[in-house]
């Protein structure tokens, strides 16, 4: 290994991070040790290197000692690499002439033996100094940002994000898979904790979306392809055929009234019916029906077209086909929401087996005044229940299904307890594991529902049939519960049992993640860039995640997150350009054989093999490259290297660690 521009002048800074590092690592000893390393001209330790005085220490030394490399030994680079790069830059040093040794997450937080931890910290510093020795300046270039924004998913998250951006006079494309926007919130009657009518707060927003001059609503549509990079994405959207001309349709609804063919309504969770030509609910946006071709007798057997006969606007178009529309955007907000846990997966709840065992989402439709029962709570035989049990945590906080807490079920169960009592007068029992009411006004709501006379019993339950030997159980469902507060197993007869099903990632989450090149966390929801410091960004620049597709959450948190993502997209637009990472792959054309392995392995589409004077050779689009290094690893001739991770740098780092125990 050789370095051409003479020996560098390196400064090393060892952070105490309060007692986070200094509690386990002898930081003074590490700084002392660093002073003796080759090319190190100054080494210091300081309580908080990331603080203003800490950064000033670095800046002053760069000027005073003419440093041309800086090493900071502190926390993870994910936390503070940008901070220290900025400090170097402010003192006139290229920000890529900086290396970080992680002596917190990789050392003090995982060891407790001071002597050994100190030796390991010294080795990590030695490795970072070795790497810094070979670092080179890198230049960054701004890329212009297309000011249009794509929002995917038209639930409350997508609606909120779209309106925030459009209200700033920026063009939004809102793509919704279903015939109408609204998402799950459109199915609710009331919302906790304020019990305000869901439609009253949601429909004005839906109408604004439909009428906004800066929103192009693409309902009944799906994104099928995304290419490009931050600031410059090209997106293909499949516009599914509705068989109704959106421009001509007046939304009168006569077609669906006259249509003779019925099936279970998905929006009403199968509790009501819809026609073959249908609008999912009366407040749908757009208020334009679609034809379900699997049910429509014209599409199946070639005759009927009753809808067409009654359509005065002449809006039916049986010749319509799916078409692909291409749009150009600078950023993308993914707001594809959640689905509820399938209660049939847990046999002990008897869902789908015993009558009158329903899910919370089914009950949301039942209590809704415009729902299939007109707001009445009814049993399968049409009678009103006198005793209703609500089971919390169905599919959540269960190691066999989802270990996480779905966060909304306790409050949704309390809301349903209130609504069931109000609408049917039934006695309500809530069966919980732990009552979680952590939100503004939530504890107060819990108390209110308790004061109304709702019973609560702590323990896991099974829903079973009545025993023929027990006369008082006859004609009822039985909730069998081990009451953990009294240590007594009880059998409580109920007329209806409501299962508070948890929130899960959508079935197609993996497909959507691949489409937008985002990751998923262990629970399957989309992964944010940083759980605390960057909760709406993703590792793909310019792609944001909001709402329940990122993790279970209620409406207030969803709306806050959607506004945050909108602010991020607007900030990109107002800046006008983005500066992509400079640590990208580069090809030495003299060594490249044009084999194309780099093209095959790259999931970002950055390398491309073209013919130059008839010879195939690879080149990398730096704006699309994430610097992951996959192409460099598969390149058989060593033609590809990644800037800032060159062979010299990596080998120097590895050599410095030789013989150090992990
Ligand atoms: C039973 C129950 C009751 C609840 N009650 C309350 C309450 O009272 N108060 C409260 O604060 N919270 C409540 N919640 C939570 C609330 O439902 C969520 O916070 C909220 O719906 C999240 O909104 P979202 O837009 O992220 O997701 P969703 O509402 O799921 O909307 C996602 C949208 O994206 C669309 N979509 C999905 N995939 C794609 C795709 N690939 N392309 C295009 N579009 C797509 C969907 O069709 C949908 O329209 C309740 C939840 C449940 C389960």
Question: Could you list some keywords that capture this structure?
Answer:
single chain, 662 residues, alpha/beta, five-stranded parallel sheet, 19 helices, 34 strands, binds flavin-adenine dinucleotide
Report on the architecture of this protein.
With about 650 residues, the protein is α/β, with parallel strands linked by helices. About 30% of the residues lie in helices and about 25% in strands. It has 19 helices and 34 strands. The protein has a five-stranded parallel sheet, with helices on one face. It has a five-stranded parallel sheet with strand order 20-27-21-22-23. It has a four-stranded parallel sheet with strand order 2-1-3-4, with helices on both faces. It is globular, with a radius of gyration of 31 Å. The model has no long low-confidence stretch (mean pLDDT about 95). The site of flavin-adenine dinucleotide (FAD) has 39 residues, from helix 7, strand 19, helix 12, helix 13 and helix 16.
Total DSSP helices: 19
Q: How would a crystallographer describe the biggest sheet?
A: 5 strands, parallel
**pLDDT < 50 stretches:** none
Q: What's the end-to-end separation, in Å?
A: 25 Å
Strand order of the largest sheet: 10-7-6-18-29
Mean pLDDT: 96
Shape: globular
Beta percentage is 15-25%
Helix content: 25-40%
What is the number of beta strands? 34
Bound molecules: flavin-adenine dinucleotide
C-alpha-based Rg, rounded:
31 Å
The structural class is alpha/beta
